[in-house]
Specification:
Number of helices: 3
Mean pLDDT: 94
Number of domains: 1
Helix content: under 10%
Number of strands: 20
Radius of gyration: 23 Å
Low-confidence stretches: 1-8, 10-16
Distance between the termini: 26 Å
CATH topology: Porin
Structural class: mainly beta
Shape: globular
CATH architecture: Beta Barrel
Strand content: over 45%
Largest sheet: 18 strands, antiparallel, barrel
Length: 423
């Protein structure tokens, strides 16, 4: 009988990774089904309609190879909706996709180069995040340089996207992505205080449906910083960012965002109080060639703007009236395996929706129960409720008195299948 280790060794050799005494190789997996019951999720629930119930699933297989001067990571995934293919199916609706595939090597002791499809994440994930709530996640095709020494790091990144392998024309037709991006990020840690400064230049493809000669790439610049202080049980952080340049349709862009957050953590309890402000447009749309709405392009907006996803998730609330979110969160641990998170958001608009509408949008309650029966298993059950004001109904263009709530349950199984190390 062939032993398990022998089978895995053959798998490793088939992947083409040359193993040596100093090399490390690991394989891990992720299985994440999620049940959702949507009755007012992402928008006001209309009258005389039935709620939506569905189960989606993420399946990932990750391989990681590392030596002293080289790292190689490949992540394959399948995203499916239970029932989107029959039982006797020949192929999946979405098939097998490449989530990440990158290599990183040392140029010298302080400088590395990382190239390929990869996650780009910084600080508290407000502008560059993983978007882990959505089953497919977010990854960029990019080249990233990093210089790191003595609690200081400097990153420089480049990305350029093209939708076709052609001999002429550079017009990007791929939806929901950018044409090109350049970023510089500097980070410095001073004992209990850290500073992170970011500059990102992002170009979006403009397509003129009537005249292709007018197709162009419009660039905007996001400039700002993240500041964090942590000592003992107290943590404070702040963000301040501005956006200038042109939006995706050529409007002049001038917008800003800031946030303040403080938390206090005891052995079983953590309390957080936060404020965020994203500028917006009067009346909910750009006017006279001017756009004053800040867009957190790649941020984890589900994490910060309420689990009902009314704002900045999936294209919702982009270029609109902006958002003021004052929120409080309490996390209580019952044991090492169980805890409960509860958050309350008060949403309002910094700019007027109309001359008659109030700026108060509504209040959202988010509750999540977390149970960890095993080291590699997490079970989450969540309930969210939006107490919507009339202004939010106007903003969403839905006239309804229905109750808006969202119920979900998710199991995440992430075992390590093989490791050539000593763990």
């Amino acid at each position: 009988m062939i032993r398990k280790a022998s089978i895995l060794s053959m798998l490793i050799m088939s992947c083409g990774y040359p193993l040596s005494i100093t090399a490390q190789f690991s394989i891990d997996a992720e299985l994440r089904p999620r049940l959702e019951y949507r009755h007012g999720y992402r928008t006001i629930f209309p009258e005389d309609e039935d709620a939506s119930a569905l189960i989606s699933q993420r399946t990932r297989l990750n391989t990681f190879y590392t030596t002293k001067n080289l790292e190689l990571f490949i992540s394959l995934q399948n995203i499916r909706l239970w029932g989107d293919v029959p039982q006797l199916n020949l192929n999946d609706e979405n098939g097998l996709a490449l989530f990440q595939a990158w290599g990183k090597f040392n140029i010298n002791d302080d400088l590395t180069l990382k190239v390929g499809r990869q996650e780009i994440t910084y600080d508290d994930l407000r502008f560059f995040g993983t978007s882990n709530w959505v089953q497919q996640g977010r990854a960029h095709d990019a080249v990233m340089f990093r210089y790191a020494k003595n609690n200081f790091s400097l990153d420089a990144g480049l990305a350029y996207n093209q939708s076709e392998d052609g001999l002429t024309d550079n017009t990007l037709l791929t939806p929901r992505t950018y044409k090109s991006m350049q970023l510089v990020r500097a980070y410095k840690l001073f004992n209990n205080f850290s500073v992170s400064l970011l500059l990102a230049n992002i170009g979006f493809q403009f397509l003129d449906e009537n005249n292709a000669n007018n197709n162009d790439t419009y660039y905007n610049q996001t400039i700002g910083g993240h500041f964090k202080y942590k000592r003992s049980k107290l943590m404070l952080n702040a963000n301040i960012f501005g956006q200038i340049g042109d939006d995706a349709t050529g409007n002049n862009l001038q917008s800003y965002f800031y946030s303040l957050l403080g938390s206090w953590e005891e052995k079983t309890t953590k309390f957080t109080l936060a404020l965020q402000y994203l500028s917006g447009n009067e009346g909910g749309a750009p006017n006279k060639g001017r756009n004053r709405a800040f867009t957190p392009f790649f941020g984890n907006n589900h994490k910060y703007n309420g689990f009902m996803d009314y704002f900045y998730v999936g294209g919702e609330h982009i270029n609109s009236v902006g958002l003021i979110d004052v929120n409080a969160e309490l996390c209580f641990s019952f044991s090492e395996k169980t805890k409960l998170n509860a958050a309350l958001h008060n949403f309002s608009s910094p700019r007027a929706i109309s001359s008659q509408a109030s700026k108060q949008l509504g209040t959202e309650l988010d509750m999540v129960f977390i149970y960890k029966p095993l080291k590699f298993v997490d079970v989450l059950v969540g309930y969210s409720h939006m107490f919507a004001k009339e202004s939010l109904k106007i903003l969403k263009n839905v006239d309804s008195n229905e109750v808006n709530y969202f119920l979900w349950s998710m199991i995440t199984i992430k075992p390590k299948l093989f490791s050539s190390g000593t763990e």
